[in-house]
Amino acid sequence: MDTKQRRKTPRMLNDNERAKLEEYQDLIHYSSRYSDDNFEYRHVTLPKNMLKVIPKDYFDSETGTLRILMEDEWRGLGITQSLGWEHYETHTPEPHILLFKRPVDYGN
Fold it and tell me: Which CATH number goes with the domain that contains 13?
């Protein structure tokens, strides 16, 4: 994970930005979980048109993909998951796919 992509504090959405995203939130797709010895993973697929209404400062200016989002930021976009998930990568060839992970024993 390129930590320079992550902000030090979350950039919260304002009411107007949040309203533009609401129509897409029911179309977010969550993969099944998969794991290795250390982490469980899942990917979250945003509707492609949703990328057009996400604020520009949520994107990495060098790659044009979403930067690594803090929990308050991805939850603000309408992504809903149980506790412990961390956005760690954006799938560059398909920028609407966000990769998440959490420790395999999280919550035990």
Answer: 3.30.170.10
* 72 occurs within a structural domain: yes
Structure confidence by residue, pLDDT tens digits, 7-45: 778 999 999 999 999 999 999 999 999 999 999 999 999
Structural domain containing residue 74: 3-103
- Determine, yes or no, domain membership for 68: yes
Q: How far apart, in whole angstroms, are the C-alpha atoms of residue 100 and residue 27?
A: 18
pLDDT digit string, tens, across residues 57-82: 999 988 889 999 999 999 999 999 99
Query: Considering the domain boundaries, does residue 108 fall inside one?
Result: no
pTM, two decimal places: 0.88
Phi-psi label, residue 51: left if phi above 0, alpha if psi -120 to 50, beta otherwise = alpha
